[in-house]
Amino acid sequence: MADQLATGSRRGLRPALPLLLPAYLWLTVAIFLPLSAMVFFSFMTDLPLAGKEWAFTLGNYAAFFSQSLYSTLLFASLRLGLEVTLWCVVIGYPAAYVLAKVLKGRSREAIFLLVILPFWSNGLVRIFSWAMVLREGGILDTALNAVLPFKINIDLMYSYPAVIIGLVHSYVPYMVLTCYLTLQAIDDSLIEAGRSLGASRRQVLRRVIIPLSMPGLIAGSALIFVPVVGSFMEPRILGGRTGTFYGTVIEDQFVAVFNWPLGAALSFILLAVVLIILALAAPVLRRAG
Amino acid sequence: MRMPRLTAFLAATAVFVSAFTLAAQAAEEVHVLNWKGYGADEPWAVANFEKATGFKVVNDFFNSEQEMLTKIRTNPGLYDVVMINAAFNDQAMAGKLIQPIDVSKLSNYADIAKDKAGSPMLNHDGKVYGVPWVWGLTALAINDKSFDKPPTSIAEMWNPAHKGRVIIRDDAVEAVQFGAIASGQNINDIKDMEAVKTKLTSLMPQIKTFWSSENDWNQMVASNQIDIGTYWSGSADRAKTHFKLPVSLVIPQEGAVAWLDAFSIPVGSKNVAGAEAFINYMIDPKFYVEWVTKVGAPVSANTKAVEALPEDAFNRKVMGSPEVAKRIQFQAPVSDEQREKYLALWQELKVNVK
To answer: Is A258's CB within 8 Å of B64's CB?
Structure first.
């Protein structure tokens, strides 16, 4: 069976080439080349622009280890990534379950549309609208004070929770979509079989539904965790003075101080750390799956 | 029969093409590199200049001095005029990025204040590498709604009454120089970095957020979220004049950081005559008065231009007073080494807030 599959795929490769070529050409030009240039930059003392002296160095990578600043920030960013992923699971998974198993027809389409809707608006616009909602005297503050009999002061803007709220809002659709796909594929008769054999609702969830939808949960988590660790726009706008993260420091190196080599080195350290985390997590998650 | 017709056709085409080339030559382009929204790209100014000289202005922008230097480095021959902060002129000249300017071609140059025109930052070996344009301050600005009467001391930033309602710019050099003034030091020769660090550390809990553009600052005031913060004099003027916001500039008794912006001509400019015409127009009193009235601007380096403002204009009355001149410190070039030291301190402060 495995042999048959293997020969089948080998036979399929040649005719598939023209179909694959545009994608790989694009990947080479748009991702592989700039990325290799960045690897090259990260080992340089300065950018090789007209007349500037440069040499190869490991100094940019050493900078990460010689100053506690960068590792502190990296930990803060990893924590941010974990927290945001967790909230996305808490919010996104039940929503995906309802979409896949409870709602049918028109109402499912409507809810699905609402989930995807944020994707159609620009990320920056979304973050700025959160700024209007979260700030003191903003929409949330005014609305709550209009309803509640006592006076409360809600000023979430420029704080860590504001960053979490903004990021969860931006990334929760990924979790809903990936989980929806795996949950929808679960055969309803499996759930019915579990129930008729005496399993409680909770047991069915724990023993049948969650294990079967694990690939979706893992894919969603990876899709969210990786960009959140490197995020810089949301922390900068919503985080205020607490909004310094690993991503914002990398951005500063590129935009504000023009130290591309250090910025590139910091980026690749982030890439390495994220890959290590995913590699370490893979066997655990696979067993769980 | 056929041949002549073809010849005629070719000749007509040739005439046409050369006519176009002539037209193109008549409307030569002047490529200008400057901050966005900073005078040189005002549509009315561009229109006036184009009408008066026949040159066509093409604006390009930068977001930081480092980006500006990189842009002229990587595009030799593209730009004809570049706006360089005097503190960066040295670096641009040493990198052979800008050329000496023949100031005899600029009719308005003679009216530029002698101390600005003679600045050692803009003159090297008796040659002029930068034409002073405007100068201004990095001082404090207040939200008028939060104060009955404007404060006079920089210490107001540390006043517990403004906790969580203070804003400063996310810029290492500016923050460190601000700390130097607050701790009573010379901004160009900071001897006691520890004092600067202590001052800034105690400021951090007061801060609401960092600003990076004029728009950030103005929005914070418009939504009444801040009381006081560091701001540029020209921007405070623009916030008041153009955006009608309750903003006033305060020049604290301890002093303020002054900067001088100047125009230079990059090496390899294809249109030096156009560049000279444009620079001359930028320092012209007529342009300046219109800029101040319509939009709000820093102080012109041209004495005649400042005199053309009404007597009670802020840029003439306050910024021009000898009382203020005594307090301000002009920013000298900052070496890369110092810059990196300042950045390390600034990043450390920002991380310790967490």
So the answer is: yes
> CB-CB: which of A49, A52, A255 is closest to B63?
A255
Assembly ipTM: 0.73
CATH numbers and ranges of domains, chain B: 28-135+260-318 (3.40.190.10), 136-258+331-352 (3.40.190.10)
Choose, out of A68, A80, A241, A242, the residue to mutate when testing the contact with B (most B CBs < 10 Å). Answer: A241
Between CA B129 and CA B133, with CA B132 as vertex, the angle to 5 degrees is 130
Going by C-beta distance under 8 Å and a sequence separation of 6 or more, which residues neighbour residue A134? A140, A154, A155, A156, A157, A162, A165, A238
d(CA B245, CA A259): 37
Chain A hits for B171, CB-CB cut-off 8 Å, are: 256
Buried-state track B319-341, b at ≥16 Cβ within 10 A, e below 16: bbeeebeebbbbbeebeeeebeb
What is the C-alpha to C-alpha distance for residues A72 and B28, in angstroms, rounded to an integer?
54
Q: How far apart are CA A57 and CA B235, in angstroms?
A: 42
Q: Which residues of A touch B73 (CB under 8 A)?
A: 49-52
CB contact at 8 A, A47 and A35: no
**What is the pTM assigned to this prediction?**
0.80
Chain B contact for A69 (CB, 8 A cutoff)? yes
Best B143, B225, B340 member to test A by mutation, with max A CBs in 10 Å, is B225
CA angle B154, B156, B157 (to 5 degrees): 80
Could you tell me the domains of chain A?
67-288 (1.10.3720.10)
Q: What is the pLDDT of residues B157-183, one digit of tens each?
A: 999 999 999 999 988 999 999 999 999
